[in-house]
Write a structure and sequence with these properties.
Blueprint: H1 9-26, H2 29-36, H3 41-68, H4 75-91, H5 97-110, H6 113-141, H7 143-151, H8 157-160, H9 162-180, H10 182-197, H11 202-226, H12 233-244, H13 258-269, H14 274-291, H15 293-300
Helix pairs in contact: 1-13, 2-14, 3-4, 3-6, 3-10, 3-11, 3-14, 4-5, 4-15, 5-6, 6-7, 6-10, 6-11, 6-12, 9-10, 11-12, 11-14, 13-14
């Protein structure tokens, strides 16, 4: 029996490019390019400034989580490794290899392999949980999204259930892991309580994750303003977070393709040109790539013999 292999980097790049090519075949690529290239330097600077705050908060959340597990992690190392993880996640498929790299580096330097990996896992889970809850809140409460949901045809409803399917599949995987690796689950459960759920931990975790999630939506809105989108700023904030949720689909590189497709669908549902939605999503992606470039400097300055992240499959 042949072993099933996960989609490799070449396939994921191909998927991202194929989705983008399909969008450009369907829409007018010249209109998309005209809007993206009209990005205002002032708005770009504002968006990049927000990403700096975003990384600082994320690195603090990681340090706090690691500290709750008894691990030392300096501010400088946390910030450098977080930028490195961002850069790797931007250029390699899967969206998680960068986080695996910072967990590996922290385990190497701390000598505590299990806690170091669980610290990154818990820190990521804290952020993704707030993203999911925030998205549900936006979908239920914001008038702009009620208009979108009414405008979408019933046959498209399945696309909106994708996050639910991902969460359900994750629950099945976690349940299977608890049955097969009971000690690992007990360790994770204890660390979850210490670093995330304890009364002295969850308020700070929640505050940091809320601030980071708000920064995602703010960068999206600033990117839209930067290319001249005239929608109300509150509407841009409202539609940003659920669109960015499409980046979690694990068959692309840094969300390229799926993010743009989601934006095109939302813009069309709002009665606006799909090209504009694609242009906003591509601008957001470009801002994220530029924001992650300090991670390339960290990678270039990595001393010989330092741990690296190997991709399997």
């Amino acid at each position: 029996m042949r072993e099933k292999r996960r989609p490799g980097p070449t396939l994921r790049w191909a998927i991202s490019l194929a989705v983008l090519a399909a969008l450009f075949w369907w829409l007018d690529p010249a209109r998309v390019a005209a809007q993206v290239t009209a990005l205002s330097p002032g708005w770009l600077a504002a968006a990049l400034a927000v990403t700096v705050v975003q990384v600082l908060l994320s690195a603090w959340r990681w340090r706090f989580t690691a500290g709750r597990l008894g691990l030392a992690l300096s501010r400088t190392r946390a910030l450098a490794d977080y930028y490195l993880a961002m850069f790797v996640n931007q250029v390699l498929p899967g969206g998680m290899l960068g986080d695996a790299l910072r967990a590996h580096r922290h385990a190497h330097h701390s000598g505590a392999v299990g806690p170091a990996w669980r610290a990154v896992l818990i820190e990521r889970f804290s952020g993704q949980l707030v993203v999911a809850l925030g998205t549900v809140g936006v979908l239920l409460l914001m008038p702009a999204w009620r208009e979108v949901l009414v405008a979408l045809r019933p046959e498209r409803v399945g696309a909106w259930l994708a996050p639910v399917a991902v969460i359900g599949l994750s629950a099945v995987v976690v349940y299977g892991a608890t049955r097969r690796f009971p000690q690992a689950w007990r360790d994770l459960r204890a660390d979850l309580h210490r670093a995330l759920l304890a009364p002295s931990a969850w308020p700070r975790q929640l505050a940091a994750s809320l601030a980071v999630v708000c920064s995602y939506a703010l960068v999206f809105a600033l990117a839209a303003r930067g290319i001249g989108v005239g929608l109300d700023f509150a509407v841009l904030l409202a539609v940003g977070l659920p669109i960015l949720l499409a980046m979690l689909i694990p068959f692309s590189v840094a969300g390229w393709g799926f993010r743009e497709a989601a934006a095109a669908a939302v813009w069309l549902a709002l009665g606006l040109p799909g090209e504009q939605g694609v242009a906003v999503a591509m601008t957001y992606g470009a801002v994220n790539l530029v924001a992650a470039l300090p991670g390339a400097v960290v990678l270039a300055r990595r001393p010989p013999g330092a741990p690296t992240c190997r991709q399997s499959g």
